[in-house]
Structures are given as C-alpha cells and as structure tokens.
User: What shape does this take?
Amino acid sequence: MDKVTIQNLKCTKHSNKNVQFIQVNDTINQQDSNKPLFYCSSCFNHDLQFKSMNYLMIDQILQEADKMIIPKWPPVNDFQIISDLIDFTSNQSQFDYVKQITDFFDQFKQEFQAKIDIIQKKMINEALKYPIDSNQIIKRYQEISNILQFQQLLSNQQANSLLEHSSLCKQFIAKSEFQKDKNTELLSNLLTQANQLQANFNLEYPNIIKQQLFTFIDQISFFNEDIAQVRQNQSNSNIQLANISNQNINSEFKLTSELLVKLISNKSNFCSDEFINELNQSLQNLNPLLQCYRFHTIFKENKEPIDFSKISEQRLNLIENYVKHSINLASDSQYENEVKNSLEIKQINQIINSKMSFLKNELIQEFEKFLVDVKPFLKQINFTNSITDQNKFDLFRNLQDENLNDLFQMAKKGLFYFSQQLFVTEFANSQNNCRVKKNKNADYEIEKLNQNSYVNCISSINLQKDLKYVFRIQVESINEGNEFMIGLMRNSNADSKNGYEENLSCFLKNINQSIMKDNGYSCGIYKDLKGNEFKISRNKMIEMRVYLKEQILEVVDYPNYEFKLGLEDQYKQKLTQYDDLRFYVGLFNQGIKIVLKDAEIVNEFRN
Ligand SMILES: [Zn+2]
Assistant: This one.
C-alpha cells in the first residue's frame, strides 16, 4: 500500500487533483473563513484573487528545503531580504571564503617554498666560490706545494742508491726553493680567500629577515576588523600622523604612505607629478609593511619639513640658487673669487667704499661678506647704468683723504656762502638805489646806482654766537674820496636805520687807489690792533672776522694781514647781547661796486 504523503492527498473540492500549494501568509486574517489552506491547480485557477505571494509550492519545500533558501518562507515583512539571500547563495564561487583562504595559503606556501629554494641555491653557490672546507684547502695546498710529487719522489723505487736519491731530492727541493716567492704568494692568497668568507659571512642578517617575515606572516589576515586592530596597536603613538588631514575612510591605512609621499613631494624636491602619483599608489600597497616604522619619531624635536608649497616658482628658484651658491662658497675658493669679482658686487662695493659713504671699515667688510653671501638675490636688481653721473662718482670715489678734507672745508665754506643771500633793505627807498646780483663767478656784486640816499645791503643769515666767520670783500670800483662801510647790524633794524648806527661797522675810504680807515669818524671798528693807519691797495681784499661769543669783530687786509682794526671796547657787549646780528655793507656814493668774495665758517682766524 502506498504511503500516504501530503503529495498524494486529494483536494477536498476537486477530488481528482492532488494538492499542490499551501498558503503560508495572511493565514491569521483568514482563520475563521472556510478558505482551504491547501490548493490544487484547479483551486488556483478558480481563485480570482489568488495572491501568489501567499502560496508556496509544496513540492519545493519537500525537495529543496534541505539545501536551498525557500522564497516566501518564513513570513517576513520584507521579502527582498529572502530574495537577496537567495541571490547570495546562488553565486557560490564568489563567496566561498574558506576556499579563497585555503587557495591563498596553498599558493602562498608553494611560492614561498619555491622562492626560498632559489635563494638557498644561490647562497650555497655563492659560498662554494670560497675555498671553505679543509679538503679543498688541502687540495689547493697540494697543487701549490707539489708535496705529492715530493712524496712520490721519496718513495721512488727506481733510484737505487742513497746518493741517487739525494741528487734527485736535492734537485726537486732546489726547484721548489727557487719558487719560494711564488709559493708564498699563492699560499698567502689561499689563506686570504679562506679568511674572506669568514669575514664576509653574516648569519645574523638572514635571521633578522626571517624574524621580520614571521612578523609579517603573523599579520596576514583576511578580515578588516583584525587589520584595523593591528593598525591600532602599532600606531597608537603615531600622533604626528593624525595631524595629516585625511577624510578617507581608510585613513589609518593610508597614513604612513601619505606622510612619506608628502615628504617626498615637498616642492623643494622638484619631483614630477607623474612620479609622485605612481609612488603614492605603490606606497599605499606597502602600508602594512610601513607600519613597522616608528613614524612618531620621524622628525627631529621641534622640527618639521620646511613648507615650500606656498612659495612661488620664481622664489623657489631663487632659494635653489642660493643653496647651490652657499654650497659652492663653502667648498670652492675659486668660486668665491668669481663671486667677489661679479659686476653686481663690484658695483655695490664701489658705492659702499666711496669716500662719501662714511661707513666704518668693519661695517664695509661685514657688508662685503654679506653681499657675497646673498649674491643670487642681487640678480633681482639691474645694475647696468645704475650711476647717474659716473664721472662725478669716480671723482669722489678716488679722492685722497687729504683732498677729501679740503673738499669738506670748501664745502663748508660754500654751504655758508651759498646758503646766504645779500639783499638791499627797504630802508629809505634803498631798493631803487642799489643793485645786488651774482656775477659770472657766482659771487655777489653790490653796486650803488645813484647818488641818492644811503643803503644797507644785508645778509639773510643771523650769525651764530659760537661760530667763527670770515667775510672777504673786494672793491671793484670806487671813485676817489668815496666811502663805504662793512660790519654787523641787527636784522630788526635793517629797514629802519643806517647800519652804521649800531656802531659795529668799519668806515673805509678810497684815497689814491688805496682803501683806508676813515680817520676821525669811528663807527665801532676803529681801534688799531696791528699796524699803523689801516691801508690796503685796491686789488687786495678786505677781511672781516666775527666771533660773537668772544666779542671779536675785526677788519684785516687779506692776504697779507699787515693791519688789524678791532671793535672799540664800549660796543663789545652788543656782540653777545643781540641774537639777530648780520653781515652788512653800507654804501653812499654812485659807482661803488663791491664784491663779496668769501663768506665762510673757519676753525681758526689766521693772523
Ligand atoms: Zn482543488
């Protein structure tokens, strides 16, 4: 009798059909209905609301449940999960992890073994090149020494007498003795070779490699969780690495390689982008190996690589040139001379060595050294035609020290002379009666134009108490008997008084082509300090000296200094009293022309 199974149960509604489907979903909602749980194919046809989602083929459960995931079972809220699981299990080879791991290790062991075999053979061959074992050494010794021939000779049966033996041996030994040098050399070489391997042999290094390999092998893992844990343990102290920004999910993996790439790609290394990209990719693969290095000690204390990334190409080139330059300077004295002789440095040295720079020697030397040091940067300056007037520059540059002093004396005088102006005051309509102009020698020339009233012609500068002044005038033209005066007057009185009213003047007169003191009319400078009767010829100059602090106001003949007129004592205190005393010339007569030849500040008055 047939065993009763669910498959050969007949449908209650269609008795000629076996049940084929079973409802596995929505059964709770239909508990009270008469709807059958099992369906035959006719039930299925007749059910117009049939939802295939709710039914499972009974056959499928019976035949496939033991080896497959059954769609629609168990009841779940989202059948996509079951559908995905079915997809997963159907793609067998891709997800056979154990097989992948087994394959990896099988292949690994084979390749490892093969690799090691090759190295082993190579090393043995290498070692065999040396005469290492004693047999080889003895064999070589026998070749060199001919000891076996000696042995044969001694045991030679053909020689019958001791004499004959002796002769043969003597011959043999002599021959060998002739080769004493060669024997020494060959045996010495043999010894050297034997020693060489001993010196060259290193068992420690392969052991380190082996240990490292084991360490690496220990780290083999197919599971990211493990790998991350290994990373974690190794890089706990890699604080510096964390400073490197990295948004990548695998940041811990990439850290070491990125740090290396960052170092290598430092702009100052001038590596090409192509190289950096390739290196970056290669190093990322090596990250598990790189973890062995202690990157937290990569930089010296308080130091890190110089960041050139924000520097322009041009500046970077300058820095490059500077570094090369510094290295050459340190190593090549000929180069240093070339630099010193370069146009730029010669030019600047000329400028700083110019007499007019007034730099201390120490500073000049320091500056010259500095220029040699920074020579590459000087290229930024265009030195060609840098000096506006080469002739003047050379003139000053080549001045001797004593000439320089003279020049400064001249300049000092000149500065005072040129800084002052002579002008006619507004006193008594003077400006219409007198003309002041500079002649072709740039000297001031004062000329009285008519016979109208007296004029003051005064300097623009108040004289200082503590300076010694010398004024020199020459009388260009003057009529017989005509008079004029030179001296000091207060600027505050210049527009309101005759200059001589201050009583700080010398009254002079032209008599017979000589300029003489006007006897009988004192306006201050009247006292004969040297010589009798002040008198100088027309072509000489009259010099007035002023030193207010010491109440000196004198008139002398220049350049002979035969006469000297001094200020009368009762007026001397005026010299220290007033602060606005100025040089002036006073004129009466038409046709007088006086030239101010010198106006200078001196260190000492000459006698
Ligand atoms: Zn049925």
Summary: The pocket of zinc ion is lined by residues 11, 13-14, 17, 40, 42-43 (CB under 6 Å). The longest strand covers residues 468-477. The radius of gyration is 60 Å. Confidence is low (pLDDT under 50) at residues 236-253.
